[in-house]
Design brief:
- This protein has 10 helices and 13 strands.
- It is an alpha/beta fold.
- The protein has 2 domains: 110 residues, Quinone Oxidoreductase, Chain A, domain 1; 146 residues, Rossmann fold, CATH 3.40.50.
- Helix 2 packs across helix 3, helix 2 packs across helix 9 and helix 8 packs across helix 9.
- Bound molecules: NADP nicotinamide-adenine-dinucleotide phosphate (NAP).
- The site of NADP nicotinamide-adenine-dinucleotide phosphate (NAP) has 28 residues, from helix 1, helix 2 and helix 3.
Length: 321
């Protein structure tokens, strides 16, 4: 991966060119770079799937945004750059009072977590939710949003420093799944079992967490950051009336459009009201994007990692035409 000058992204119908101020790393960025994602991207390409910035120019038929609007949004690739052209439909205005770093950090992790908790697990007030990989991007968003829904959260992650971040973010209980017996500790700490599990990690933790659920529990499969897809004995599901359901963003948006719209409106309101604040743990300049991606791959970061293209408060120089 190199940082170099390339031509300005072309603007076409339906597209908006955004001057990127900050971009956020998501786990799939690593998979795409390693060519391990479901879809291969032809080389060369610009990585990066989540951004916040300022609208520079809109395509001929775009009426929803105008020059100067502060926006955040998602794209498949292209966000780790000074400019990106994305469909207008994938952009949202950043609420007043939210900076570009948090705007960039918000969309993917919080939407994934909220759909999983609100629409799939249907978390109720007072319930216990176990979040695996709780110190990661989707993980910390789930820790925060479980509390917003009035439920109690048990955060499971690797090592005391990562668990301390989860505690700081309001986790009611924590388990170090590297050193402790996950199943036993969940049962002890939740007075008999979890009502919900949010699982972005997979591997051996999934079955341990499933075994620690109470009757009628809802287990949401979100991803396999461990690289291992677990195989679950179905007798566990049968005996306790447990529901296991997947949440994959594209499928959910297509097939559960009403729930997706409601969740999105609620989330934006929470962000605008300051009731949710994405946890940005570290900010790298664009020149250090390789180090930033390596740190996420090494499990050395918590919450969201930001690539800052233009520091907050600095107005970029006009690009010569
Ligand atoms: N379903 C969807 O629509 C959707 C949307 C977004 C993301 N995802 C998926 O959700 C997962 C998490 O994404 P994210 O952006 O939150 O990633 P992230 O910030 O890197 O967090 C992943 C967490 O998984 C844990 N982990 C355990 N084993 C790991 C391993 N071998 N390598 C890396 N991490 C490991 C790490 O915590 P510890 O070190 O504490 O264990 C890490 O904090 C990914 O699988 C991603 O593809 C799915």
């Amino acid at each position: 991966m190199v940082v170099e000058d390339v031509p300005e992204p072309a603007l076409g119908p339906g597209l908006v060119r955004v001057g990127v101020r900050a971009a956020a790393i998501n786990f799939p960025d690593l998979l795409i770079l390693e060519n391990k994602y479901q879809v291969s991207v032809p080389l060369p390409f610009i990585p990066g799937s989540e951004l916040a910035g300022v609208v520079e120019e809109v395509g001929p038929d775009v009426t929803t945004f105008a020059h100067g609007d502060r926006v955040f949004g998602a794209t498949f690739v292209g966000a780790f750059a000074e400019q990106v052209a994305v469909p207008a439909a994938s952009l949202t205005r950043i609420p007043d009072g939210v900076d570009f770093r948090r705007g960039a950090a918000f969309g993917v992790a919080h939407s994934t977590a909220y759909h999983a908790l609100r629409s799939v697990a249907r978390v109720q007030v007072g319930e216990w939710v176990v979040v695996l990989g709780a110190a990661g991007g989707v993980g910390l968003a789930s820790v925060e949003l479980t509390q917003v829904l009035g439920a109690r959260v048990l955060a499971a992650a690797a090592g005391p420093e990562r668990l301390a971040v989860c505690r700081d973010r309001g986790a009611d209980a924590v388990v170090d799944y590297r050193d402790e017996d996950l199943k036993q500790r969940i049962k002890e700490l939740t007075d008999g079992g979890a009502d919900g599990v949010i699982d972005p990690v997979g591997g051996p933790y999934s079955e341990a967490a499933l075994r620690a659920m109470r009757w009628g529990g809802r287990f949401v499969c979100v991803g396999f950051a461990s690289g291992e897809i677990p195989r679950i004995p179905l007798n566990l599901v049968l005996l306790k009336g447990i529901t296991v359901q997947g949440l994959e963003m594209r499928g959910f948006l297509e097939h559960s459009a009403d729930d997706a719209r409601r969740d999105r409106e609620e989330l934006l309101e929470l962000l605008g009201a300051g009731r949710v604040t994405p946890h940005v743990s570290v900010v790298y300049p664009l020149d250090d994007v390789r180090d930033a991606l390596q740190a996420v791959a090494d499990r050395a970061t918590t919450g969201k990692v930001i690539i800052e293209i233009v520091p907050e408060g600095v107005v970029p120089e006009a690009v010569p035409g």
